[in-house]
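Here we describe the complex-level prediction in full. Unlike the single-chain runs in Section 2.1, the two entities below were treated as one system.
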Amino acid sequence: MVLSWLSQAWRKILFIIFVCGLVALTGCEQAERAEKSKPEVITPNSPVTAEVSAQTFQLPIESYQLDNGLTVILSTDHSAPVVSVGVFYQNGYRTEAKNRTGYSHLLEHLMFQGTSNLAAGEYQTLIRQTGGFAYGETQLDNSQFVQSVPAHSLETVLWAEADRMQGLSFDAQSLEKQKAVIKAEVNHRLNQSNYGGFPWLTMPQLAFDNWHNNHDFYGDLRDIETATVEHVSAFYQRHYQPQNAILVIVGDFNLLAAKAMIKQHFSQIFSNIDEQMLAQNEKRIADISEPKQLTEKLATHYALLAPNPALALAYQMPARGTVGFYSMLVIDQLLLQGHDSQLYQALTTQHNYKGQLTGGVNFLLGNSFSNNNPMLWTISLTYPASLTAEDVRQIIEQKIAQLRNNMISKQQLKQAINKVKAQLFDLLDYEYGIGRASLLASLEMFDGGAAELNKIEGYLGQLTPELIKQTAEQYLTINNRSTIILTPGDAPKAETAND
Amino acid sequence: MRLKQRLQMTNVASLRKVKNILISYFVLLITCLSVTATNAQDKQQLSGNIAQEKKRVKPPVGAEPDDFVIPKLHTISLINGLKVTFIPFGELPKTTIRLVSNTGTIDEGKTPWLAQLSIDALKQQIHLSGLASGQPLTSVEDDVKSYVGTDNSWLEVDVLEEYSAQAISLLASAVIKPQLLASEFTLIKEARQRQVALIENNLWYVAKQALLSELFPHHPYGNLNLNSELIKRVSLADFVEFVSADIVPGQSHLYIAGAFDQAKLSEVIHQAFSGWKLHQKPIREKLAINYQPRIHFITPESVQLNGEVQTHLLLAKPLVAANNDNYIPLLVVNQLIASRIKLIVEQQPYSARVENTIINNRAISIWQQKIDVGKAHTGKLAELVFNQLEALKTQLITTSELNEIKDYLAGRFILSNASRTGTINQLSFLVQHDLEHQFLEQYVDRIYRVSVNDIQLLVNQYFDTNQMVVVVVGDRAIVEPQLKQIKALKMAW
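The structure predicted for the assembly as a whole is:
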């Protein structure tokens, strides 16, 4: 009896313990679930996510790879019978090795100087005869060769691009000629223009610490002067390969027909990279990572031909693909772009400013999307001698401080986002399809895929006044700032001696 | 016989030996060749993509171009005479709105710069109204674009589709009620004065002014008014009067290109422009072409002072109006001349820059050739250019050369229609020159119909070197004796 009572009591106790345990367990699970369902805190450094409802367009984008490693991106647009073709090689000013500076620029010129099938200058003539145009451009992280032609000339262009991916034909004489052309170009842009390399060449040299990011992007002219056919051939062999290239076609074409043409003209190009040689010499991909800036940087430059003093301020940008990056595009519009921008208004209405206020993300080094990290957001302006650099810097800092300390209104945010969108559409429209081709290639190279293009509006839709404020607090700080004060005239003798 | 047989046998054996040797040799040769080939392949791989010597492959010619099709247009007319054309174009939510008016420097009367300053002022009025509304139209600094020509002028905004209605209203308000603060108008005049001051002494502008004065004496086409002082004379009242009298609905055309809701915008347009009163504009007198072919010399002070070494040469010849049947074939001739002259320049040991243009005034188009060359070579190069024109009169060009020119022009035409603004340009060209849509639809076909014989006939008919106006800006003492040596120019002295 006693035993049976005990056992009954034990059974009850055990049951109660079991139920309590179950309740406790369920409670824990619920708490855990609640914890999990709590919205994640989004900061400027969070990866951006797309607000689908904010997307107003979807462009057709298809990408694939050939067996030889060539990435192909196709985006049709049947608005007009025109196609734009771009080949983007993933090497540029800041991926070059120390003793090969300026080589990408040199190759940009040599790509038009002939192959075994086209003599020097015939590439341009071929494209011109279609009624279209072609040009090459060296950027920080890639070298691009682009053209727009009537749609019926697509195959001619694909053949010609494949032809110069297959091989170039230049000799010592044509190399020397292009060296001279580059020297003249550099001299004209740097020594014969009012402001020289200010601030597009000079600012990265001040703002960044990594040599890849802070050397003169035109390169050390001695590297160019001493370049031999063998050096340049080796450089071409290493970088101008299908697996290092992205081919983009935008415009009025038939997808199947285009794919067949690509297969016909590009698939037989095999990489000739000697991997062993690569491993022995240098890494294929240069390390362009940049340490976080901890203190303000300041420099004073002099320009003999400058009619007015000038000032440039630059801030290191948040990384691509983050909320902060897209917030900076909005801040750029709010503060800097257009006559309605806060800086323009402050300078003109309060200070009767009549100078030139410009700047932006990757200022004069491509568009907001065309470069890899690290990037700069730059404000650049000339000002009358009646103001001092410090006056101007104060005016700018006041406006930036407002952004750090106060939240912008939702209406201001909407307006600035509209301006970012307008700028994006202008880029997509640029030179028929060249702008779109360039953007698709950039997104493929740096953001994980060309299809990101269809999410950009959605990313902008995720932004809030709070995130704009947080981005300003985190990135538009004095410690993250670099300043160049440009003074007209010759450098004072003492400073020249120090240089 | 045995001997013979033996001999034969020996011969057979020898032959077999020889055969074996030959076989061995060939095997060896093939082996060697294959090794060499493998080595060559390896070498090619080692030496990278640098192309090996081989037979040149010709590029594929591409497909046949499709017929040119004008986008599906829809044109409406308002009661006050304003015409509106909707042009659906592209995939992006962007709209270009351009108001083109059949007015320009030709209507300035005795107030030079009135047309330009009026358009500048309207531009500023639209910009300020946009700012005041709290919703500026676009991101670009220069949010309203404009153009002022001899016969037509326009204002344009390029906006996100959602702002298209607002942009139309702002445009309408400005042209219906032109108004600007006197201080704003003064700023506009000062800005324009600064721009003109920068170019008024530019030798190319000086040459252009001389050329136009020769071609169109006593006509507004003939005057660039490159004098910044003249700008000061234009008043705010002049601006208001010019807009009211010359930018009128019956002489204007509104183009909407890109993405839009046509029904919604039609309503907006009717409302916004309904207050624009019908205003009869006097019909202009037809321009009589009356010029004297001659050589006009200008020796600028800068030449005398610091020994300017370059010569700027302008050659010009009036052709036909754009609605003449010969206009499109003459574009082919112009391109041929341009290509020949470019080639001549490339073959010279000295450097020179050349550029040729067709200037399309409403009444007449003008062929113009620019040459920029060192004074020592001026005569030689001019002679080569004139000789080339003479040669085209007597020698037939090859079909392949002509076909290259045609392909280029047909391709360029396709590109020039391939944007919102490009399509508007083409359509407003039709209006300006009283042309039908057929002009655009048949353009490529008419280019391709030009024959080598047509070229010869047209050069003979329109490029008489004795009927040209030549302007020379440079060191006359050096250049004149050189030019006097040119046979083709003797009639003009």
